[in-house]
Specification:
By secondary structure, the chain is of the alpha+beta class. About 60% of the residues lie in helices and about 10% in strands.
């Protein structure tokens, strides 16, 4: 959000002085009406016409002056104008006015800003006063109809102005609501993106660090008994660290490129973008885990079909987190990864022969969750960790389910995730 500070001079000062306030507008209208009612006192009077005296002019000013308060007290202003007009008619015989300017402005204001009950009362009172006013002037039906017409027109214009102002307020309120909604949506999108990045970094670091710890703990023993195994362990540590650094560099490079796109600074290109991991990267993942000493078996059944990139990345991260938990917590010798392609879903199953649920810690076993619609088929049977919660979040984002519990025959631990099978669209021209 950018904040613009306007100096006292220049456009800010011009805008400030170029928009008069309501009181200034009312004073201006009062002056204009006073000029209009002054005209009959300035033009030459025909012989036999009532004289233009200062007393008559003073009473004329008396029924114009209340218009200054027309916004703050519209009903009182109309009553004052009608009373002053009646006083003028009954006490002096001055020049007549072609239009009842003050009464029209006052009734217009009542129509704009008063309640329905006040409008009804003022309308009836104004209509009633028209008849004796016309009778004291010419008494002609033409003048009566014309006077009633102009007052009705003033009232109608007031109601139209009220409707337009209400519409403008509604549009402005709607615009403010849309701004608030857009800001909330932007903040929620940013929170979701932060959560996604946190999951990615957790998966990358947890997997790499777990493999490095296992290899580092086995290295000193292997140095004394099997130097070639120690060399392989140190090589696996190096490869796991390099792979983690590469994936982190890709993620952080995307963040830097996004911030540069916002105008911070041009991208240097030193952190290249890379695609998300997919099913094609599973063999490399299984091979890196196997180097830690855990035997990993893999099987795929059913008709394999290409998945959208997001779904492929979710499958990769689910298998990665499951194997990371096996390495960190299970104490297993063998882990089995199975992908089963069904008619409408893909089932991912990771089992091990280590100790079962309830004996681990941290990201250890124990989470049972249902689909992303908030259904939970079972209660947690042990401690929950960020890793398994991340597995459930990834599955639920694609409309899938996750189940964790004892392995086959009650031995070891099993994680099963089911994702709806939505294949990626065919390439154009294929």
């Amino acid at each position: 959000m950018q904040t613009h500070v306007t100096s006292p001079s220049g456009e800010g000062l011009a805008a400030r002085w170029g928009r008069p306030g309501p009181l200034a507008v009312d004073i201006g209208i009062t002056v204009l009406v006073q000029i209009a009612v002054t005209m009959p006192f300035l033009v030459p009077r025909p012989s036999g016409a009532p004289p233009a005296t200062w007393t008559a002019y003073g009473l004329t000013t008396l029924y114009v002056l209340p218009l200054v308060w027309r916004r703050r007290a519209p009903v009182a202003t109309l009553l004052a104008v009608l009373a002053a007009s009646a006083l003028f008619r009954l006490t002096v015989d001055g020049p007549g006015q072609p239009l009842p300017y003050s009464g029209l402005v006052a009734l217009y204001t009542v129509a704009v800003s008063s309640s329905p009950r006040e409008r009804l009362a003022c309308g009836v009172l104004t209509t009633v006063t028209v008849f004796p006013a016309v009778a004291l002037n010419t008494g002609e039906a033409r003048e009566l109809l014309f006077t009633l017409f102009v007052f009705a027109a003033a009232y109608a214009f007031g109601r139209l102005t009220h409707t337009r102002q209400a519409y403008v307020r509604a549009v402005e309120d709607r615009a403010r609501q849309l701004q608030v909604t857009r800001r909330i949506e932007t903040e929620q999108a940013a929170a979701r993106e932060r959560a996604r990045i946190a999951r990615e970094m957790h998966d990358v670091l947890s997997h790499a660090v777990s493999l490095m710890i296992v290899q580092a703990e086995a290295g000193p023993v292997a140095v004394r008994t099997a130097p070639e195994r120690a060399e392989a362990a140190f090589e696996a540590i190096s490869e796991a660290g390099r792979d983690a650094m590469t994936q982190l560099r890709h993620m952080l490079g995307v963040l830097r490129d996004d911030s540069s796109a916002g105008g911070a600074r041009p991208s240097t290109g030193k952190a290249p973008r890379a695609p998300q991991p997919s099913l094609a990267d599973l063999p490399r993942l299984l091979d890196s885990v196997s180097r830690s000493g855990l035997r990993v078996e893999f099987a795929a059944t059913g008709e394999a079909r290409p998945l959208p990139p997001a779904a492929g990345a979710a499958v990769y991260r689910i298998v990665q987190e499951a194997l990371t938990n096996v390495v960190k917590h299970a104490g297993a010798r063998t882990a089995t990864v199975r992908l089963e392609y069904g008619p409408g879903d893909l089932r991912i199953t990771v089992t091990d022969d280590g100790h079962g649920p309830g004996e681990g810690d941290g990201d250890g076993p124990g989470l049972r969750r249902g689909s992303g619609d908030g259904h939970h088929p079972g209660e947690p049977s042990g401690p929950r960790g960020h890793g398994l919660i991340g597995v459930w979040e990834r599955a639920s984002a694609h409309g899938g389910t996750v189940w964790t519990g004892p392995g086959p025959g009650g031995r070891g631990f099993s994680l099963r995730a089911e994702l709806p099978l939505v294949t990626s669209p065919p390439e154009v021209g294929s």
